[in-house]
Amino acid sequence: MTENDPLNDKILRELTRDGRISNLELADRVGLSPSACLRRVQELERRGVIRGYRAVLDPAKTGIGFVAYINVGLGLHTKAAQEGFERAISAAPQVIECHNVTGNVEYLLRVEVADLAAYKHFHTEILGTLPQVSSITSFVVMGSPKDERA
């Protein structure tokens, strides 16, 4: 996780599991004094190793009932085409993740919406209208037995 520092690695693992853990509890779990632990966490934040803290939401309680991963191929393999696609995707609130990947497509998206009708709208009216897009392959999530994203 970090440059050969087992204590920082322990801190990062604990914070990944629970970003709201108190400094006192964190220090106890990693075997440091509270002041030493706090200094390490602040240094990890200052160096950008820890970029932020997030709330993990319950999709069903926030109105998200449909999740899909989408492979997107572009018709042109230019910097301008990629930048235009990325700008459009950044403006789409349905897209929770966008990754530029290797392989036979350029992008992998994670899309979260209320239901199939909302997904169809996104697929047809937003993603399907982008001039850069040449192929769309959807993979509907039926369940997530392991999901450690925070």
Q: Topology of this protein?
A:
Elements: H1 6-17, H2 23-30, H3 34-46, E1 66-74, H4 79-90, E2 95-100, E3 107-113, H5 116-126, E4 133-140
Helix pairs in contact: 1-2, 2-3
Q: Kindly, what is the distance between the CA atoms of the first and last residues, rounded to a whole number of angstroms?
A: 16 Å
Number of helices: 5
**What is the architecture of the largest domain at the second tier of CATH?**
2-Layer Sandwich
Output the helix-strand order.
Answer: HHHEHEEHE
Which structural class should the secondary elements be placed in? alpha+beta
CATH class of the largest domain: Alpha Beta
Number of domains: 2
Fraction of helical residues: 25-40%
What is the compact description of this entry?
With 150 residues, the chain is of the alpha+beta class. The protein has helices at 6-17, 23-30, 34-46, 79-90, 116-126; strands at 66-74, 95-100, 107-113, 133-140. The protein has a 4-stranded antiparallel sheet.
Keywords summarizing the entry:
150 residues; alpha+beta; Arc Repressor Mutant, subunit A; Alpha-Beta Plaits; 2 domains
Structure explained in plain terms:
This protein has 150 residues and is α+β, with helices and mostly antiparallel strands. 37% of the residues lie in helices and 20% in strands. The protein has 2 domains: 6-46, Arc Repressor Mutant, subunit A (Orthogonal Bundle); 59-140, Lrp/AsnC effector binding domain/regulation of amino acid metabolism (RAM) domain (Alpha-Beta Plaits). It has helices spanning 6-17, 23-30, 34-46, 79-90, 116-126; strands spanning 66-74, 95-100, 107-113, 133-140. It has a 4-stranded antiparallel β-sheet. The chain starts with 5 loop residues before the first helix and ends in a 10-residue tail after the last strand.
